[in-house]
Write a structure and sequence with these properties.
Elements (H helix, E strand, L loop, with lengths): L8 H6 L1 H10 L4 H9 L3 H21 L2 E6 L2 E7 L3 E8 L12 H6 L3 E8 L4 H10 L3 E2 L2 H15 L5
Antiparallel strand pairs: 1-2, 1-5, 2-3, 3-4
Length: 160
């Protein structure tokens, strides 16, 4: 059963060596693979689905941080093993487009920043896959750390 998506022909070509190893592990050797392919066997589709699931799941397991920026704000996620942590930045001002703010405008715009976390409702990798498909991009730990620092700074009591 397809869990994520099929790899494209280009992706399969790029992973040809890994796919051959996958076939060998599943006791399908060169001659048998050619025969199955020539017969347009259903087993070919099943093997490609299995391999696609394996490759994509392995990639999703390595993802730690995601972000989505919209005109309303920025949401950054730390995809931990058991829960997902969210840092959100937005503004209550109407007419502000986060995507077009300059650094100077950003520093003078009143911002709301919050942090929360919750347990995954689905499998971790399924959640990440769905988030990527809905527009999130992968970010690095440094970027997430900057947003976390902004959150921590915003929650510190101000000294007069």
């Amino acid at each position: 059963m397809l869990k994520y998506r099929l790899l494209t022909d280009d992706e399969l070509k790029e992973l040809e060596h890994e796919f051959k190893q996958f076939l060998i592990v599943n006791e399908i050797y060169d001659e048998e693979w050619r025969k199955l392919n020539a017969e347009k066997s259903k087993k070919v589709d099943e093997l490609i689905i299995m391999f696609s699931n394996l490759v994509i799941e392995k990639s999703l397991k390595r993802i730690q941080y995601l972000e989505i920026a919209t005109s309303e704000g920025i949401n950054a996620y730390h995809c931990k093993d058991d829960e997902i942590e969210l840092i959100g930045i937005s503004t209550q001002q109407t007419g502000i487009n986060f995507l077009s703010l300059t650094p100077d405008e950003l520093s003078t715009t009143p911002l709301s920043i919050f942090m929360t976390s919750k347990k995954y409702e689905k499998e971790r990798e399924t959640t990440i896959f769905e988030m990527l498909n809905s527009g999130c991009g992968i970010i690095d730990e440094k970027r997430y750390g900057q947003l976390r620092l902004a959150y921590e700074y915003s929650t510190k009591p101000r000294q007069n």
